[in-house]
Design goal:
This protein has about 500 residues and is an alpha+beta fold. The protein is about 55% helix and about 20% strand.
Length: about 500
């Protein structure tokens, strides 16, 4: 599968527009015929996703474009059904490859993908170069919207796609093209323009004056958007950050539902929280191993070169464990259970089942902090790992409850959230050290050969020391959080 980060700018071009002379070389004219697939209600297109089968010079390939930060990620695979003929044979050539269909699941929700538009594009252009090499491709597309073989609509546009330059180069080229007669359009992809629809606006936080139920609804919608946005990256497995952010969104949503329990119908909220916990556990099984693998890899790199062989064996054992956990995760997010969870979150993002709308955000934040304070005050002089883990969970709840209440409380809540994050991060590092210690012990018991056993022992010593060092910072971090907790909630 070929992958590319696409950064481009679109401009309108009238019937008399011609590309200006640009430094570089002219591209050979291309004729592209693209059939776009989507759900009947255009869920992909409105989410900024494009899936198409493109023909050029008797060959076909499938292309998928996914939102990727400020750019889009383009994935391309050849279409084996198109070999030897224009139409292909696999269901008329209109069934997308399984690997691409899988990546749009969170958008399609398992709904059948059907052709929604066919475009024929005549493309002329230039590869813009500077002294260091290619900067951008500037192309003029003359587009026919087809109904059968007949063109029912035509338009022209300029695309400026960076291939090596930066945003400054993009702006300079765009200004040159504007001077030649191009105009700013609305920037929509061709398919949205053809269908006459607008993209779905990104989820936003509720206004400060919003009611408690509306605030909760908006936060659920925002986190659902994050789950969907990172779904494809989690399936691909190339960037661990996608999985991490998807897990964070699950945990946040579950925590918001927990802290808002006084105003929610428990028969609605608790099953939803249970399903979020299930998904979070599947994601967490892989994420925890990613964190452990990175940490132990750094630690092993700092050992004597003579210990490299034993360290490599240890990491291979973790890789095998992670592969099993990832297989379980992929099975989970390819299941009907996952699709039902997304549907339930859709409903929650539209209208949570609120039974008492008079519960205040301040009460939710205050109660969460009180539970944390009582738990910390009850700690013995030498707390166990389990007791500290419970404090970490309560700190997380207090932080998320404060995020719900922030618009009503103001600046002090924002500062409390910052201190709560610092405290939670410290306890997260402590938890990572404890998990690493237990995993290393387990690997050490299963070690094959003296080299691996020796490295396991060295690493185990470091985790014990790491735990003690982190624990030494606990009291100071707690005092800072308690100070802002008192200012915010009392």
């Amino acid at each position: 599968m070929k992958t590319t980060d696409e950064r481009e700018l679109k401009l309108e071009a009238g019937p008399r527009f011609r590309l200006p002379d640009l430094p570089g070389e002219r591209l050979e004219r291309r004729v592209l015929t693209s059939v776009y697939l989507d759900t009947a209600d255009h869920r992909l297109a409105t989410s900024g996703v494009t899936l198409r089968r493109r023909w050029e010079a008797g060959r076909a390939r499938w292309q998928l474009k996914l939102p990727h930060g400020e750019a889009r990620l383009e994935l391309e695979v050849p279409d084996p059904a198109a070999r030897g003929g224009r139409r292909g044979t696999r269901r008329g050539g209109m069934e997308p490859p399984p690997e691409l269909a899988d990546l749009v699941t969170a958008y399609s929700r398992g709904t059948t993908l059907v052709p929604v538009a066919t475009l024929r594009t005549r493309r002329d252009g230039t590869v813009v170069r500077d002294a260091h090499g290619p900067v951008a491709e500037v192309v003029l597309d003359s587009v026919d919207v087809l109904d059968g073989h007949a063109a029912v609509k035509r338009f022209r546009e300029v695309e400026i796609e960076l291939t090596g330059g930066d945003e400054r180069a993009l702006s300079q080229i765009a200004e040159t093209v504007r001077k030649a007669g191009a105009t700013d359009g609305d920037g929509r992809p061709k398919l949205l323009r053809v269908l006459g629809i607008e993209p779905v606006a990104p989820a936003e936080q509720a206004e400060d004056s919003a009611s408690t139920p509306e605030r909760l609804r908006a936060m659920i919608e925002f986190q659902l958007g994050s789950i969907v946005a990172h779904d494809a990256g989690t399936r691909r497995g190339e960037d661990p950050e996608d999985l991490h952010q998807m897990r964070v969104a699950c945990r946040r949503t579950r925590a918001f539902l927990r802290e808002a329990r006084p105003m929610l119908d428990p028969d609605w909220a608790e099953p939803l929280r249970a399903e979020l916990e299930w998904l979070g556990d599947e994601l967490g099984a892989v994420r925890d191993l990613d964190v452990l693998r990175q940490h132990l890899g750094d630690q092993i790199a700092s050992l004597d070169p003579s210990d490299a062989q034993g360290g490599a064996r240890l990491l291979r054992a973790l890789e095998s464990e992670r592969a099993r956990a990832r297989s379980g995760l992929l099975a989970a997010i390819r299941s009907d259970r996952y699709l039902k969870l997304l549907a339930a979150l859709d409903e929650a993002a539209r209208q949570p089942h609120v039974t008492d709308p008079n519960v205040t955000l301040e009460d939710i934040g205050r109660d969460a902090f009180k539970r944390l304070r009582r738990a910390v005050n009850a700690l013995p002089d030498e707390p166990s790992d389990e007791e500290l883990h419970d404090i970490r969970i309560k700190a997380k709840h207090a932080r998320y409850a404060a995020e719900l209440a922030e618009p009503a409380v103001g600046k002090s809540a924002r500062l409390f959230i910052e201190r709560a994050k610092d405290f939670q991060d410290l306890l997260g590092d402590l938890h990572d050290a404890v998990v690493a210690r237990e995993r290393i012990r387990e690997l050490g018991r299963r070690a094959r050969g003296a080299a691996m056993a020796f490295v396991s022992g060295r690493l185990l010593e470091r985790q014990v020391t790491r735990r003690e060092e982190i624990l030494g910072r606990f009291s100071k971090r707690w005092r800072k959080l308690r100070k802002w907790g008192r200012k915010t909630w009392q």
